[in-house]
Amino acid sequence: MTPHATNLGDSSASATRITPGNALRPEDIVEATRLGTVKPSEDVAEYALRLGDDALILAQRLGHWISRGPELEEDVALGNIALDQLGHARSFLSYAGAAWGKTEDDLAYFRREPEFRCAHLFEQPNGDFAVTIARAFIVANYQFLLYRELSKSTDSMLAAIAAKAVKEVDYHLDHSTQWVLRLAGGTDESRRRMVAGLNLMWPFVGELFQDDSLTARLGAAGVVPSSLKDEFDRSTGTVLAEADLDVSALHMSTGGGRAGRHSEHLGFVLAEMQVLAREFPGASW
Amino acid sequence: MAQNSEPNSSGASIKSVSSAASGKAVLDGLTPDPVQLAGQEHFDAVLAKDSRVEPKDWMPDAYRRSLVRQISQHAHSEIIGMQPEANWITRAPSLKRKSILMAKVQDEAGHGLYLYSAAETLGTTRDEMMDALVAGKARYSSIFNYPTVTWADMGAIGWMVDGAAICNQVPLCRASYGPYGRAMVRVCKEESFHQRQGFEILLELANGTAEQRAMAQDAVNRWYAPSLMMFGPPDDDSPNSKQSMAWNIKRFSNDELRSRFVGMLVEQVKVLGLTLPDDQVRFNEESKTWEHGPLDWDEFKEVLAGRGPCNAQRLERRRTAHEEGAWVREAAVAYHQKQQDKQKAAA
Ligand SMILES: [Fe+2]
Ligand SMILES: [Fe+2]
């Protein structure tokens, strides 16, 4: 009966997970980089840091919904999405850290705000359920296209992480699409809230598709953000048209997250996320 | 989390019970009719064979009521039990721990779902059960009315609270009511992961810095007595246990289960290198059972009656989530209805 202190730290132990399992775990990446079989270039590491930070901050946001969802099924669904995002974050951060001799936890807990590379969209507060769905809908469309392309990366580890992630994001895409349709086509109130949610979140779309010198240097190892924009417009446009929603008049914010200039919100997210780890620097958990 | 063997809730709102059988009148107090007699005979035979009662079978009203009460209280415990642990998701000190904790709390939502479904087969709806919960009319395991003040509480809850739940629930896998027993099989598998993960958290802390070790011991000290009380009042003060055992729902008495649990803690706390806050724990060679020091049943009753440290907070949080989610649930229903209308119009 004595529990063994073996590594059970695997979220696949959860039977309520709907999305596909853990073919490539962060622990596997750590092992591969430790053995020196794979090591990211500086540019690839910087790029992985961006994707990891996006997923980490979103997971942190979504984690707050667990036990607060509008119905139990949504506690489970949003929890699933948060877990998937956290899994992707751990993979990208573990890989990025291999370039600098840092662990995923060094990067998550001991960087300061300007050192984070997430885009502003991921930092935005949850708001009500419609705001969360609006953000989730943009993220899922973006990540689906991004990971699908990245799974062809010339960097085999990035390709492997993305290939696994895209299967999970496919479910996130379905989840958020269904809710956009339901909220827009449900009651007057849900429609009003869905419109308000999109108004709040859509301005952050622009930043996701901005190219910079890093994405140019990466070439076929990464994905040029602007190359995804047309298909993003098409895929979101189909759903928004079906829901009779129009986002064409909304302006685009300037962003700055990739360069470490963040929204007003990230500092609070980090303060909460990092508080305990920083209270005990060097401790093992 | 926890099956609770706590006293009955007098106010539990179970409206549709008597209309829920196989459509036949089976009200207590009527002159036995042939259908009822045949039903009772079959029911007794099923129990005698230690076999399963299924939703469509005839069953005594009191059996149905008792099950609805127990299963819904169990479901509520899973749902309220998410809160003390969700409290630490955003602050988990490593990404691996964050991931495990999120998965765990999400599992508990799943347990709530299986259990509400099992209760629904007895003719009460999830809405009715949820309404009773947010109205403060339903009971849930009182242990969740204690606060989680340090990270070590995630370890102590997994190890002791999920551990107590396992001791309670493994025998329930054989409960005479089929849907409940089967729900318990699924739940127990996950609870044993939870317990091992909690143990692992404590082990890591116990082998960490002096501060971490003190944090672990403090959490064990605080959760020990409440976890022992999860098994319900002592046998001589547990009026429903006898009937529940006669119905093959409960298999062991509260004190028997508690004693086994203490035995398990005694073994495992050694591996942790921590201590239990009870100098009266001993193995009674005569009765072959584990004994423990006195428990504060007055406190237990106070907390159960709604006067514990977090009762109001837990209920308020559930009520807020429920009320703030109302427009979402209404939207889903309205959308579904519109889609059906469209399909009809097209047909
Ligand atoms: Fe549970
Ligand atoms: Fe559990």
Arrangement of strands in the largest sheet of chain B:
1-2
Q: What is the beta-strand fraction of chain A?
A: under 5%
Number of domains of chain A: 1
Identify the bound ligands.
fe (ii) ion
Gap between N and C termini of chain B, in Å? 48 Å
Rounded to an integer in angstroms, the radius of gyration calculated over CA atoms of chain B is 22 Å
Mean pLDDT across all amino acids of chain A: 91
Distance between the termini of chain A: 23 Å
Largest sheet of chain B: 2 strands, antiparallel
* Helical residue percent band of chain B: 55-70%
> Helix count of chain A?
12
Helix percent band of chain A: 55-70%
CATH class of chain A: Mainly Alpha
Low-pLDDT parts of chain B are: 1-26
What is the 3D shape of chain B?
Answer: globular
GO molecular function (chain A): phenylacetyl-CoA 1,2-epoxidase activity
Protein name (chain A): 1,2-phenylacetyl-CoA epoxidase subunit PaaC
Organism (chain A): Arthrobacter cryoconiti
EC number (chain A): 1.14.13.149
If you had to describe this structure to a student in words, what would you say it looks like?
Chain A: It comes from Arthrobacter cryoconiti. Chain A: Its EC number is 1.14.13.149. The complex is a heterodimer of chains A (about 280) and B (about 350). Chain A has helices spanning about 25-35, 40-65, 70-100, 105-110, 120-125, 130-150, 155-185, 190-200, 205-210, 215-220, 230-240, 265-280. In chain A, helix 1 (about 25-35) packs parallel to helix 3 (about 70-100), helix 6 (about 130-150) runs antiparallel to helix 7 (about 155-185) and helix 6 (about 130-150) crosses helix 8. In chain A, about 60% of the residues lie in helices and about 0% in strands. Chain A has about 280 residues and is an all-alpha fold. Chain A has a single domain (about 20-280), classed as Ferritin, core subunit, four-helix bundle (Ferritin), CATH 1.20.1260. Chain B is an all-alpha fold and about 350 residues long. The termini of chain B are far apart. The radius of gyration of chain B is 22 Å and the shape is globular. Chain B has helices at about 35-50, 60-80, 80-85, 95-120, 125-135, 150-170, 180-205, 210-230, 240-245, 255-270, 295-305, 310-325, 325-345; strands at about 280-285, 290. In chain B, helix 6 (about 150-170) runs antiparallel to helix 10. A two-stranded antiparallel ribbon of chain B has the order 1-2. Chain B has 13 helices and 2 strands, in the order ααααααααααββααα. Helices cover about 60% and strands about 0% of the residues of chain B. At the A-B interface, helix 2, helix 3, helix 4, helix 7 and helix 8 of A face helix 3, helix 4, helix 7, helix 10 and helix 12 of B. Bound molecules: fe (ii) ion (2 copies).
